[in-house]
Design the sequence.
């Protein structure tokens, strides 16, 4: 089956293609080079005047796992009036801030997204995370497994075990939980909170293990680099949401000592303490340091106004945020001597000084960080805003007139406290294609996603080239997944399951001996039952949502160093 | 498939047990021609569940033997004809619930689990206040104080104390502080608490429906404003002061309950008080709630329904959209008021979870021997996940999901497969 996509205006940053009129061919789900003249074309889409990009990739979106479902259970009032009827193809669902799984898949696809990655999969909860992702159709999925607050890792660090032991543990955990990357949330802090520590700054010691967040970050950053996983350690730093955490963020960037790191939802970590209200933007200083440190990538975690429900592994800091819960209810959890979670409903208001400045800080970061390859478009769904607000965010970045109009409507003191009115930068379509496609694909090591060169999966999105960029990115004209037309005029026309991407770095299976002893001695689950098989994932991606089976795709890793 | 040797029985280790919500997964079970035998780490529920004979059941239509295709056709006919089918019982695994959700969505039905009444004692609190929760491994390794709130844990979960409360070592220390265990309520079985890891075991007798009075007094004490009066629900003020001091001093205290045990009117207020108390203590020191229960696949049903529809059960799909009404879509109540005109009932774990008596056409997908009053329109014997086929199931703490193994006990079909066939034919 040969499909020709004729005459679209193509943005493919991986190959340096910036708005050129090109033909693209796909055969059997993959993009192929132009066939010899005279080859029969089975299907042709005339895309003259339309914008063509690879399917978009969300590198940080909480779409699967316990805390997301706790948030769903916690917020029935948020679903009310947001129910989605069953269609000829689609299952029913609901949700504003935290949509149900199938609705999540449909909404992503309708916007032209063909992949989203769950960034906080607890090892203890990994099986459920994969089950939920398996019930999220249309898009590819993958997950970052959380390490750095678990007793096994912290005691290894405290006992100064050698690096190869740590690397074996990282590798084993990635295999067993079926992860593509590793995340650390409030390094050591989730664990410290269980010992009644209420804060843990970069160089503060954990009362029990006597290690610091700096030790944890450095060890995991080095470990990830040396086992050859493409995505560097994904860091949700210390002091989330705390005024003055800009200093911590600056220190964390330096603490990496040049090792590759990814700092996630950096907006929530860019707060200063200046001004009458002791809350100010640290964006300019952080962006300046980021521009100098090519080893660091970020995603923003933009705040957009409205009701949402925050869900994080960071029980320590989420507990600190419970006073702001709106509505006034919340869930915290201490989990399995492994991790934690905190679910706190939040209503971001443009007439709240703090919320308005959070909004401005996110935009400042987007506009002051100069390399779009190292900054990814996220709202940290659902923490800053639901993911389907992205088109609005893209318009804020691409249209300075619109941005300045919006700025004029927020809390006046926040307008004064932000330098946003002085920034005239506008993102181009090429920048957006980098930030939402090529950048995340490169960073996550997705070889065959996020670009339109031969060998890539034929995940292709076509937009009308509208002046109103929000309208443009809201409603895709066509979305193809593996060459199948799945969305037409913003409506789902075919259900597909989507694959699960994993990375499998090398590790020495001898690590299973101490691990088994440890599980047998302390855990309530057996080591063998902890491990998730490929069959489970494939079975989980099959049939429950319609469409064909979703497979497991093993993305390549580099050779392990020692 | 598991191979079963005719001569020497095959012993499987690390087997997960689906017969209560704490899902022990350290069982050893031998499989042989005479059935399953729990050879290690089995409690009474595990032995009863695994060692039951299930081989001789066949599908029935109106009490007469039928082939499986005939039974499925009749079930499909009943559900097609129904204006408001009800999907109840829901004693099945994750894949079973997924299939129920797909079928309910397509047929415009109502979903509700047989043990929802207990779960809603929790969900009401979750949805109005939230809470601070912990999980089994966390409690096992960290807690130095367990306060058991009005729940007979030993009866519902025979290995809870052995696995979570009694251990003598923890991740944090080879010689952890001895655990204090407080039983709040009349008639709670304390016999499971034993061993060198246990310190004080205290029983505070009190009628279950008055436990909330004691909790209120405890909360006032913890807030530094003790309630006046010498006794609260028959408990002396000194006892409450002592309990408050123990709560304050605990390195990590846990308040444990099992929702099915709190079977008295407005029990959610008791759960709500536990939640508030625990929040109060956390202002200065660490404490957490631990809710058990979750037998008969109830936690899986609540979780899958939440992630697929947004709501934890008691959802109707009659309008084409999920319509949530935890007061209305209660299957026993709907049966009593004549709402709903067909009932599909699933009970694949234990024979106790039979359908309520009703005159509307009823389809039962049940483990052989499931208790049924009257003759259902259709009965299809089904396998038990974890004994007759593989599956997955969510633990009571809503965090850990365990894989369930096919132990080859029988070739009875999977609920998920049967429902998928009906959905396809509908």
Sequence:
């Amino acid at each position: 089956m040969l499909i020709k996509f004729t005459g679209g205006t193509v943005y493919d940053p991986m190959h340096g293609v910036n708005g050129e009129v090109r033909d693209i061919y796909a055969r059997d789900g993959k993009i192929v080079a132009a066939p010899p003249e005279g080859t029969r074309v089975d299907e042709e889409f005339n895309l003259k005047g339309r914008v063509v990009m690879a399917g978009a990739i969300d590198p940080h979106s909480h779409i699967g796992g316990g805390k997301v479902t706790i948030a769903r259970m916690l917020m029935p009032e948020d679903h009310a009036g947001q129910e989605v009827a069953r269609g000829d193809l689609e299952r029913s669902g609901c949700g504003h801030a935290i949509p149900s799984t199938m609705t999540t898949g449909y909404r992503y696809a309708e916007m032209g997204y063909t992949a989203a990655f769950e960034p906080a999969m607890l090892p203890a909860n990994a099986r459920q995370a994969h089950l939920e992702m398996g019930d999220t159709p249309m898009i590819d999925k993958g997950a970052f497994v959380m390490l750095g607050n678990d007793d096994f890792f912290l005691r290894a660090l405290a006992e100064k075990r050698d690096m190869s032991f740590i690397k074996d543990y990282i590798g084993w955990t990635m295999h067993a939980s079926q992860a593509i990357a590793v995340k650390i949330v409030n390094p050591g802090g989730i664990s410290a909170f269980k010992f009644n520590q209420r804060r843990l700054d970069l160089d503060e010691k954990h009362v029990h293990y006597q290690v610091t967040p700096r030790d944890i970050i450095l060890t995991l950053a080095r470990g990830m680099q040396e086992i050859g996983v493409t995505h560097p350690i994904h860091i949700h730093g210390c002091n989330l949401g705390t005024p003055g955490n800009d200093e911590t963020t600056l220190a964390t960037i330096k603490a990496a000592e040049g090792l590759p790191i990814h700092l996630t939802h950096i907006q929530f970590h860019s707060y200063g303490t200046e001004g009458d209200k002791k809350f100010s933007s640290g964006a300019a200083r952080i962006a300046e340091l980021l521009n100098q440190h090519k080893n660091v990538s970020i995603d923003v975690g933009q705040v957009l106004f409205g009701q949402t429900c925050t869900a994080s592994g960071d029980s320590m800091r989420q507990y600190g945020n419970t006073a702001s819960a709106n509505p006034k209810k919340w869930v915290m959890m201490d989990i399995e001597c492994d991790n934690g979670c905190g679910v706190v409903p939040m209503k971001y208001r443009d007439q709240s000084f703090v919320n308005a400045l959070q909004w401005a800080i996110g935009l400042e970061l987007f506009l002051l960080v100069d390399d779009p390859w190292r900054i990814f478009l996220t709202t940290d769904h659902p923490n800053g805003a639901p993911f389907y607000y992205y088109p609005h965010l893209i318009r804020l970045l691409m249209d300075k007139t619109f941005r300045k109009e919006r700025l004029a409507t927020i809390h006046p003191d926040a307008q004064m406290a932000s330098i946003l009115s002085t920034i005239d930068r506008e993102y181009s379509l090429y920048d957006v294609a980098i930030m939402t496609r090529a950048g995340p694909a490169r960073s996550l090591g997705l070889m065959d996603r996020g670009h339109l060169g031969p060998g890539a999966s034929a995940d292709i999105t076509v937009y009308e080239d509208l002046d109103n960029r929000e309208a443009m990115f809201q409603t895709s004209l066509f979305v193809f997944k593996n060459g199948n037309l799945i969305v037409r005029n913003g409506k789902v026309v075919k259900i597909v399951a989507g694959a699960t991407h994993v990375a499998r770095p090398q590790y020495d299976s001898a690590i299973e001996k101490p691990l088994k002893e440890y599980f047998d001695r302390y855990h309530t689950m057996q080591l063998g039952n902890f491990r998730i098989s490929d069959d489970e994932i494939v079975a989980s991606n099959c049939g429950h949502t319609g469409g064909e089976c979703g497979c497991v795709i093993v993305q390549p890793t580099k050779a392990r160093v020692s | 498939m598991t191979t079963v040797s005719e001569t020497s029985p095959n012993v499987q280790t690390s087997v997960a047990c689906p017969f209560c919500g704490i899902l022990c997964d350290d069982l050893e079970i031998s499989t042989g021609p005479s059935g399953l035998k729990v050879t290690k780490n089995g409690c009474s529920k595990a032995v009863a569940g695994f060692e039951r004979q299930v081989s001789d059941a066949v599908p029935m239509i109106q009490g007469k033997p039928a082939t499986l295709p005939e039974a499925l056709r009749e079930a499909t006919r009943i559900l097609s004809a129904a204006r408001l089918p009800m999907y109840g019982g829901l004693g099945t695994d994750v894949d079973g619930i997924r299939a129920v959700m797909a079928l309910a969505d397509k047929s415009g039905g109502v979903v509700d689990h047989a043990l929802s009444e207990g779960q809603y004692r929790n969900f009401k609190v979750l949805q109005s206040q939230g809470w601070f929760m912990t999980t089994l491994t966390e409690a096992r390794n960290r807690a130095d104080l367990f306060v058991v709130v009005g729940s007979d844990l030993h009866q519902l979960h025979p290995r809870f104390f052995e696995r979570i409360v009694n251990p003598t070592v923890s991740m944090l220390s080879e010689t952890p502080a001895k655990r204090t265990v407080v039983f709040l309520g009349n008639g709670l079985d304390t016999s499971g608490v034993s061993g060198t890891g246990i310190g004080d075991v205290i029983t505070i007798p009190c009628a279950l429906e008055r436990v909330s009075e004691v909790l209120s007094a405890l909360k006032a004490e913890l807030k530094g404003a003790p309630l006046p009066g010498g006794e609260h629900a028959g408990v002396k003020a000194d006892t409450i002061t002592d309990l408050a001091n123990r709560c304050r001093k605990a390195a990590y205290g846990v308040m444990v309950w099992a929702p099915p045990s709190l079977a008295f009117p407005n029990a959610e207020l008791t759960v709500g008080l536990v939640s508030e108390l625990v929040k109060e203590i956390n202002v200065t020191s660490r404490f957490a709630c631990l809710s058990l229960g979750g037998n008969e696949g109830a936690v899986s049903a609540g979780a899958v329904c939440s992630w697929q529809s947004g709501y934890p059960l008691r959802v109707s799909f009659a309008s084409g959209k999920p319509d949530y009404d935890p007061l209305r879509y209660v299957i026993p109540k709907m049966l009593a008021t004549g709402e709903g005109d067909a009932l599909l009932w699933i009970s694949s774990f234990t024979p106790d979870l039979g359908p309520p008596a009703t005159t509307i056409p009823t389809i039962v997908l049940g483990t052989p021997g499931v208790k049924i009053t009257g003759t259902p329109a259709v009965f299809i014997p089904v396998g038990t996940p974890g004994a007759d086929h593989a599956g997955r199931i969510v633990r009571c703490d809503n965090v850990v999901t365990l894989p369930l193994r096919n132990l080859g006990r029988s070739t009875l079909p999977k609920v998920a497969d049967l429902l998928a066939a009906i959905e396809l034919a509908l």
Residues 1-7 of chain B have pLDDT under 50 and may be disordered. Chain B has three domains: 10-50, 56-115+296-388+399-425, 123-291. The two ends of chain B are 31 Å apart (CA to CA).
